[in-house]
Amino acid sequence: MTNKEHIPFKDNKITKKEYTILAKELLNAIDMGEDALKKLLIGCENPELYSSHGTYREGDHNQCDGLTGSRFTEKRFCKCLYYRNGKYHDPEKCRKCDFADRFDITGNYRITDYEVPAYFYGKGIGEIDLIISDGKTQYATELKPYKGNEETLLRMIAEIMTYTIGYPAGKYTKAIAFFEGTNQAAEFENAAPEIKELLEKANITVFRFEKAGEKAYKICRL
């Protein structure tokens, strides 16, 4: 399979001009059923070629050695959110870590994993940013940080649909999450009809991280 044959839907250049067209294309694929949706999202005729989970297994994320350098990336941010707020938190290692963007998570929702490979895992297909849980439901969540990103809600929706399709029903509930005061938060407040329809049809939960202190956020379901 060549790269030309494998162009995931999420990698479309989602411009303002193409926004409605692409959203409707995704809505149509949902209506057509699972096979059509897989083909559109993964970008190839046979998504089963991408059904490897890589080397990760549940429970592998049980130790953090910290981060060297203060460079901010989405992956580093998700890693820090998980280890700082989970059962594998090591205060001593956290204290020595160079990464500056460390926050406590409060409220009823907790972060239980990060960077979980997509079911159809392969070239051009990434990972689920965070698993957020209320103790019963596991929300596979595409997160956009509070700084350093300009992605649209449509791109976030396409990403989490891509990363979760193929997993057994009930394994994960799809979700997107953003921080208050961001472009994504503003877009959601004035969401276009096709975005509202997509969230409903694809059964995607929306979370907003809201400030709960100088170095703390609460995960709120919208």
Structure write-up:
By secondary structure, the protein is an alpha/beta fold. It has 7 helices and 7 strands. A 7-stranded mixed sheet has the order 1-7-6-5-4-3-2, with helices on both faces. The protein is globular, with a radius of gyration of 17 Å. The termini are far apart. 31% of the residues are buried.
Task: Please outline what is shown here.
By secondary structure, this protein is of the alpha/beta class. It has seven helices and seven strands, in the order ααααββββαβααββ. The protein has helices at residues 19-32, 34-43, 74-84, 91-96, 153-164, 183-189, 193-201; strands at 104-106, 110-117, 127-133, 138-143, 173-179, 205-213, 216-221.
Order of helices and strands: HHHHEEEEHEHHEE
The percent of residues in helical segments reads 25-40%
- Weakly predicted, low-confidence segments: none
**What is the count of helical runs?**
7
Write the layout of secondary structure elements.
Layout: H1 19-32, H2 34-43, H3 74-84, H4 91-96, E1 104-106, E2 110-117, E3 127-133, E4 138-143, H5 153-164, E5 173-179, H6 183-189, H7 193-201, E6 205-213, E7 216-221
Parallel strand pairs: 1-7, 4-5, 5-6
Antiparallel strand pairs: 2-3, 3-4, 6-7
Question: Descriptors for this entry?
Answer:
222 residues; alpha/beta; seven-stranded mixed sheet; 7 helices
